[in-house]
Write a structure and sequence with these properties.
By secondary structure, the protein is mainly α. The protein contains nine helices and no strands. The longest helix is centred in the C-terminal third of the chain and has 27 residues. The model has no long low-confidence stretch (mean pLDDT 92).
Length: 196
Amino acid sequence: MPEQTAKRASPRERLLAASDELFYRDGVHSTGIDAVIEKAGVAKGSLYYIFGGKDELVAAYLRGRLQKWRQQVEAAQAGADDPDARILAVFDAVADYVSLPEYRGCPFHNAAAEAPAGEAQQMAIKEYRTWLRQSFVQLAADTGVSDSEALADALTVLYDGALATTGSAESARNAAMTAKRIARLTLAAARVSSSA
């Protein structure tokens, strides 16, 4: 039987893999197109043909990060059997994420904090924030509390705070677990308020 050779990744896949590594590790603004092209091993024309420029490449990087993050959150929620457990599972996913040795902060917060973003990058960040808000609004509504919007707001603040914590992996994980404990208390308070 002839040996089968592994299929080489497409230029698009290589550009996305290189941008994912470099943009996250070094920053969107600090990473030039030439560094991404060199890491990906593609011609400069390929980047412009596939993405049209850096702004679209950054947006594709952020959308890829959102897709992976949504999958991680859904996996964490898979075993949860009630709305409260699904909410708390989000904070378990955050704790796992922030304790990774390669964690360098939330990629969306990082990209938003850098130099002025292009239109496509801004749209990708907005998609992330919309997903986050809608997720918490739905989770809060599923609990049956009377003010699910206020609950969603509180959960969003806790989530953002947990992701913004820096330091060692252990301290970041502890902060995320603290956010989870506060989320549990917030859920209990929302239920008490609803029954009053």
